[in-house]
Design a protein that fits this description.
By secondary structure, this protein is of the alpha/beta class. The protein is built from 14 helices and 19 strands. A 5-stranded mixed sheet has the order 1-3-2-4-5. One 2-acetamido-2-deoxy-beta-D-glucopyranose binds next to loops. It is found in: Endoplasmic reticulum lumen.
Length: 489
């Protein structure tokens, strides 16, 4: 029996390769080999790119091709602050084996020569520079004066500042501990200078969270106060709860932190570097409406439309012409339900208000990415699309086996004859449905995780809320009868 097939996407990554010619030009990326890996951590922090061999032409790996120059530029910008390095796994296999490198490129962060974290964020120059700058220096910056404080909080990200009395202070120690744990995500500073907290309404010791100045508005406080007991978990909770405010600027960097909410996002030509005023013009229009609805469990955000262009198109079917130059508005719920505002955004906020009223009244039609519903077809394997998923797969009377596949996935093609054969063998039983859906062209309902193709679920009759994923070992369960046939040699 074959084991569960690995993700096709992962296999593609394994083929990533770069020609050495790219590295030959003057470069600030340090090249590390097995022989010198352990002796080369000169700086406090270094980010090491471990990359694969050179046996495939560059054209085969679009991602590596795009990434290499970004990494070079990031290295140049970080010179003197952090070191970016790379290892070629084809010639330095010992190092790559030691660090368990399985796919390329893999990025790991080393602090003082020790592995500290896996870098799994944006593979862009900006993303890497931003992250590494945050990693260097102390986890909590010491502030000595009002000028220090003003300079620290004048930043594009929020700032967390602890105010403590001078002298040995266990609370300060706890604060620093928390800062070193949470530094990957937030910016910390502290001070023992008397009177600084008072400038922001803090009378005794405590922690203040300053939202980024560019996002300050009349609709909410730009400073939040915490005076409870300090440890990593209380501080983390306080920050998480307050860091975003009513309407944060969501980017590819911070979007993960906004997951798990019902989120409305307004997309427009937001650009806080070139046009802060224009960026806040629309944000304030959103905020004005948001404050009226914020108690109802929906979160709000603004974003740069260009940054999320692909997603708007693929997930919401919105293209460049939609919105007529005004903000585009979408809602994505934590269950993955999607809505988009079809009416044009009006500066008075009335269109947005109507959209929200319809949303809360359940009057909006969900947007479903779906292939057209196929004509009735007597073939034994049913073709399911997003629009018929509910009707066919969630039919309470039927035992359904649903295969989620991708058209480009070789494993899926190999499985096809077997899958058809299974459908044929079971075709006599009207209570059984064997089905498949192209998971790249249709939305997958929540409850169905897909982490590789094909992914197969058994959805038992009358237990539709409990789809069972095919996994090695499932033969031992009640479903053995399906999978046993499916994977018979
Ligand atoms: C904040 O920083 C910007 C540059 O990043 C500077 O132009 C501005 O004057 C600073 N504002 C304050 C209040 O220090
Ligand atoms: C804190 O206390 C130390 C030693 O007791 C002293 O040298 C320092 O000036 C004090 N700092 C402030 C800001 O009062
Ligand atoms: C942190 O402080 C809170 C409140 O005092 C307490 O309930 C919690 O157990 C503490 N957590 C740790 C890890 O010390
Ligand atoms: C039925 O579907 C199968 C597989 O999708 C396809 O090969 C076949 O041509 C279809 N038949 C009709 C009559 O549409």
């Amino acid at each position: 029996l074959p084991t569960m097939v690995p993700s096709c996407a992962l296999l593609l990554l394994r083929l990533c390769a770069l020609p050495s010619a790219l590295a030959a030009a003057a470069s600030d990326v340090l090249v590390l080999r097995d022989s010198d890996f352990d002796n080369s951590f000169v700086g406090e922090v270094s980010l090491t790119l471990l990359r694969c061999s050179l046996f495939l032409p560059l054209a085969r790996c679009a991602h590596c091709q795009k990434f290499a120059p970004e990494y070079e530029r990031a290295a140049t910008r970080l010179k003197g602050t952090a070191i970016l390095a790379k290892v070629d796994c084809s010639t330095s296999s010992k190092t790559c084996k030691r660090f368990g490198i399985k796919r390329y490129p893999t990025l790991k962060v080393f602090r003082n020569g020790k592995e500290f974290a896996i870098y799994d964020r944006s593979h862009s120059e900006e993303g890497i520079v931003h992250y590494m700058q945050k990693q260097t220096g102390p986890s909590s910056v010491v502030l000595h004066s009002k000028e220090d404080l003003d300079a620290f909080i004048n930043h594009s990200d929020a700032s967390v500042v602890g105010f403590f009395p001078n002298g040995s202070n266990t609370h300060l120690v706890e604060f620093q501990k928390a800062a070193s744990t949470l530094r990957e995500n937030y910016r910390f500073a502290h001070t023992v200078e008397p009177g600084l907290g008072l400038l922001h309404g803090l009378e005794a010791e405590g922690v203040l969270l300053f939202r980024p100045p560019r996002l300050s508005s009349i609709f909410e406080e730009s400073v939040k106060k915490y005076t409870g007991p300090i440890n990593t978990s209380t501080l983390r909770r306080f920050i998480k709860h307050n860091i975003f405010g009513i309407c944060p600027h969501v980017t590819k960097e911070n979007r993960e932190k906004l997951k798990g909410r019902d989120l409305l996002t307004a997309y427009y030509d937001l650009d806080y570097v070139r046009d802060p005023k224009g960026s806040n013009y629309w944000r304030n229009r959103v905020l004005k409406v948001a404050v009226q609805f914020q108690s109802r469990g929906l979160s709000f955000a603004v974003a740069n439309r260009r940054e999320f262009e692909r997603e708007l198109e693929e997930d919401f079917g919105l293209d460049q012409l939609d919105g007529g130059g005004f903000p585009l508005v979408t809602i994505r719920t934590r269950e993955g339900h999607k809505y988009s505002m079809r009416e044009e955004f009006t500066p008075d906020g009335k269109a947005l208000t109507r959209f929200l009223e319809d949303y809360f009244a359940g009057r909006l039609k969900r947007y479903l990415k779906s292939q057209p519903v196929p004509e009735y077809n007597k073939s034994l394997v049913q073709t399911v699309v997003a629009e018929t998923f509910e009707e066919i797969v969630s039919d309470p009377e039927k035992d359904v086996l649903i295969q989620l596949y991708a058209p480009w996935c070789g494993h899926c093609k190999n499985l096809e004859p077997k899958y058809n054969e299974l459908a044929e063998q079971l075709s006599g039983d009207p209570s059984i449905v064997i089905a498949r859906m192209d998971a790249t062209a249709n939305d997958i309902p929540s409850g169905y995780d897909v982490d590789g193709f094909p992914t197969i679920y058994f959805v038992p009759a009358r237990k539709k809320h409990k789809p069972v994923k095919y996994e090695v070992g499932i033969y031992l369960t009640q479903q053995s009868y399906f999978f046993g046939i499916l994977y018979m040699p």
